[in-house]
Each structure stands twice: as structure tokens, then as C-alpha cells.
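Q: Can I see a sequence and its folded structure?
A: Here is a first one.
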Amino acid sequence: MTPPETLPERCDRCPATARVRAELPFGELHFCAHHARAHEDRLRAMGARLRTPANAPPLPPVRSRRDREPAAPG
């Protein structure tokens, strides 16, 4: 298992930098902040322990879809 202080360079779902390690009974997966948040509930339901390196900056807050999309012309 990779030490908690280090992560592979890339997310297992996209080319972004890995920020979170999901330790599962069958192995581990690595995710960027976006994919860690998107899959957090399902991963925890599967028994995953989510870890970040001790020196990593905190994950940015979750934004709603409304915050990300421009307002419709009115």
C-alpha cells in the first residue's frame, strides 16, 4: 500500500492530480477533489476509508450546480 504521505500523480477517473486515497477492502483508488466528493457517499457505503496526505491543502468546498452554471438569459 502507498504510504499516506504520498499519492500517485493522477486521479483514477481523470487526468487531474490525485488528492484523496480511498482505501477499500480489495485495494485502493485515487481521486482528484472533484471525483472524491462526487463518489464519497458510495465509497463510504462500500467501506472505504478516505485519506489525504498530511501536508495536502484542504479540499475546496462543494459547489452546487447552480453556482457553476451561468444564469439563463431572461
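Q: Show me another, different protein.
A: A second, unrelated one:
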Amino acid sequence: IEIEESDKHKTAFICEFGQYEFNRIPFGLTNAPSTFQRAMNNILKTVLYKFALVYLDDIIVFSNSITHHVTHLEAVFRLLKQAGLKLKKKKCEFFKEELHYVG
């Protein structure tokens, strides 16, 4: 999530190489988790609770058949792509009958 230009100075830090400011919200900021959750809810609002749940960067897509699941996954992928978000393949699990969520 991009930080407004007028707010970037609030994230400034100094190290041996100079002073830097964040361009995107790091999770270490106090409001970062709630801001990110709100953004994810907004991105997935058309499918949220119909066949998708989201908690921060964990997204669950649920369906009652493989055919529906493929359709639901495509819809979620499309919304994420439209928002400019990318998934990391190694962090994804597909077509699971059971899973551990938030943990």
C-alpha cells in the first residue's frame, strides 16, 4: 500500500548509509495491519463471505465442488491482479479439503 507523499517523512529512519523513508506501508507501523486489512477487504469485497475470506495476507477460497472452486479461484485471482497484487507460489496451497488458518 502506497504511503501518501505528504506522510512519508513520518516513516523516516537513519542508518549508516543515510536517511530513508518508506514508499509503502511496512507492517511495523502501528496502523499497518488495520490499513492492510481494510485494503484487502475492499479489493475482495465482491466475493468476500460468498466464497472467500481474508485475514491480512491469508486468503481462503471455499467451494462445494471442484468446478466451482476453479471459477472462484479465477475470480479472486482477477481481483488481485486488478489491484496490482501478486501471489507467491511457495506460500499458496490449492484444492485442500482441510487447512490450518492463521497459524
